[in-house]
Amino acid sequence: MESIPNKDKQEIADKLKEASYDEMKMQELAKELRDRGYDPAAETIDRFRFDLWNYKAYPKAHWKRIRTTNVIERINKELGRRSRPVGAFPSDQSLMRLAGCIMININEEWVTGKEYLTMDVE
């Protein structure tokens, strides 16, 4: 939306919202944007449309959880927190053992704790 003039932003935003439910409409919108001279916006649509359809392939209840990388960031933070006191590891195997133990603990919490995503068919 950055490359679109303010006078056209609302119109394009409405069309984008409508096109987000149909892949053909999304392609038509990208073509329309190119015809109107908004090539950067059309390129953005072309670049991210496959990600959008992958995202929308999940059940709507999952969208809130998968739109961020918080889970991965939390795991990386935990790995850093636990490996920082060690400093330098004597070997690659010792690092892998520590990381493996941490990942096993995180996995056990996920298996026995609250469900993050349920893959039940709705």
TrEMBL record:
PANTHER family: TRANSPOSASE FOR INSERTION SEQUENCE ELEMENT IS1081
Keywords: DNA recombination, DNA-binding, Transposition
Highest taxon of source: Archaea
Gene Ontology biological-process annotations: DNA transposition
Organism: Methanothrix soehngenii (strain ATCC 5969 / DSM 3671 / JCM 10134 / NBRC 103675 / OCM 69 / GP-6)
Lineage: Archaea, Methanobacteriati, Methanobacteriota, Stenosarchaea group, Methanomicrobia
The protein, known as: Conserved domain protein
Molecular functions (GO terms): DNA binding; transposase activity
